[in-house]
């Protein structure tokens, strides 16, 4: 049994959701946006001001009387984000604006019972470190490299941890008394972008990350695209090389997946086979100097990523694709090949164009995404997708 998430009513959540999506708004603007009477809005806003969840900001001058804009307070709630993407596991404590107030690292353990005990200890340590910022702690989010059940409590499979059907969400909720949500790492990242990032409120966009592996997630019509079995948009295992044309075996059991060509591990393996340095920064620097082998390896990886990005754009028609990758790859043969290949294979239409952005991939990105996951359910409610 998960604890009750909060005492916010559906009406309160409507106000919070609207301000989170649209930014600060006046009572009159909220009434128009939500199709509710001004009296109803005033009552709901009064409750949220009394609970210190909203605050009144500057005056808005327009037609008629000036009005006061309402914003969500940063200290209205705090959240814990846990990334099990890599060892060590990273735990962050953030506020409702996504600002990080404390950080703890603990060993990432594979045995589920030991992992849960160690995470519960890590949470105690984090709360201590955060001090006052840990007041109003309202939820925990966990991001992991695997598939997660539709109720967002159970890790269905995670190869990196060797987990099958581990209900880590409920176990941690029982230990901490806090609602706990589990999500695939890429999904957590995109929910963070939707809530706090520059694409806040965008209804249709995709995110891809290029790390040791490759991950991908999509917001479609304002909601996370999950697919029937929770694996929608799993670009990493999209086939990009045909059997007999240099297709390499993938950890999923197939051959020629994108991850076997374009992930950092694949690039490093290719460099090793060619007798080149396997470190991505060194390899990129050598390619920049015109060394043929490093150039060829990074060009092939970037081109494959570009092809996959073009396929993604053709299928989902997003307004933006955010590609998160190591900063050394942005302005490199990898980045250039990615953009060129994507550009070449997108069906061009007059006046519309999907924007591809490169974003630096930071070590904290997944834990930040996990905290956003808890913030997402605090604002939009446990029924939100
Ligand atoms: Zn694969």
From TrEMBL:
<dbReference type="InterPro" id="IPR036390">
    <property type="entry name" value="WH_DNA-bd_sf"/>
</dbReference>
<comment type="similarity">
    <text>Belongs to the ROK (NagC/XylR) family.</text>
</comment>
<dbReference type="InterPro" id="IPR000600">
    <property type="entry name" value="ROK"/>
</dbReference>
<dbReference type="InterPro" id="IPR043129">
    <property type="entry name" value="ATPase_NBD"/>
</dbReference>
<dbReference type="Pfam" id="PF00480">
    <property type="entry name" value="ROK"/>
</dbReference>
<dbReference type="Pfam" id="PF13412">
    <property type="entry name" value="HTH_24"/>
</dbReference>
<dbReference type="InterPro" id="IPR036388">
    <property type="entry name" value="WH-like_DNA-bd_sf"/>
</dbReference>
<protein>
    <submittedName>
        <fullName>Transcriptional regulator</fullName>
    </submittedName>
</protein>
């Amino acid at each position: 049994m998960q604890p009750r998430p909060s005492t916010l009513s559906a009406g309160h959540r409507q106000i919070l959701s609207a301000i989170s999506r649209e930014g600060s708004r006046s009572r009159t603007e909220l009434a128009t946006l939500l199709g509710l009477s001004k009296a109803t809005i005033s009552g709901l806003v009064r409750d949220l001001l009394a609970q210190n969840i909203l605050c009144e900001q500057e005056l808005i001058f327009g037609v008629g009387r000036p009005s006061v804009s309402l914003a969500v307070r940063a200290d209205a709630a705090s959240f814990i984000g846990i990334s099990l993407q890599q060892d060590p596991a990273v735990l962050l404590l953030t506020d409702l604006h996504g600002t990080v107030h404390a950080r703890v690292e603990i060993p990432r353990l594979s045995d589920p019972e030991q992992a849960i005990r160690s995470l519960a200890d890590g949470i105690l340590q984090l709360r201590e470190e955060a001090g006052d910022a840990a007041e109003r702690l309202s939820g925990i989010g966990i991001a992991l490299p695997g598939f997660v059940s539709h109720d967002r409590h159970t890790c269905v499979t995670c190869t990196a941890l060797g987990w099958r059907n581990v209900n880590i969400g409920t176990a941690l909720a029982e230990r901490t008394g806090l609602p706990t949500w589990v999500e695939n790492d890429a999904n957590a990242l995109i929910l963070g972008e939707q809530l706090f990032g520059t694409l806040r409120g965008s209804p249709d966009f995709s995110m891809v990350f290029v790390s040791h592996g490759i991950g991908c997630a999509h917001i479609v019509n304002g909601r996370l695209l999950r697919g029937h079995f929770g694996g929608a948009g799993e670009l990493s295992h999209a086939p990009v090389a045909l059997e007999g044309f240099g297709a390499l075996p993938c950890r999923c059991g197939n051959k020629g997946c994108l991850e076997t060509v374009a992930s950092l591990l694949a690039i490093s393996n290719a460099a090793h086979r060619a007798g080149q340095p396997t470190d991505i920064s060194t390899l990129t620097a050598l390619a920049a100097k015109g060394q043929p082998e490093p150039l060829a390896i990074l060009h092939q990886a970037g081109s494959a990523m570009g092809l996959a990005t073009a396929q993604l754009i053709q299928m989902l028609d997003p307004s933006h694709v955010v590609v998160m990758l190591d900063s050394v790859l942005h302005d490199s043969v990898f980045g250039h090949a990615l953009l060129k290949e994507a550009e070449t294979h997108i069906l061009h239409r007059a006046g519309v164009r999907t924007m591809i952005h490169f974003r630096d991939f930071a070590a904290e990105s997944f834990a930040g995404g996990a905290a956003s996951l808890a913030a997402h359910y605090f604002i939009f409610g446990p029924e939100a997708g």
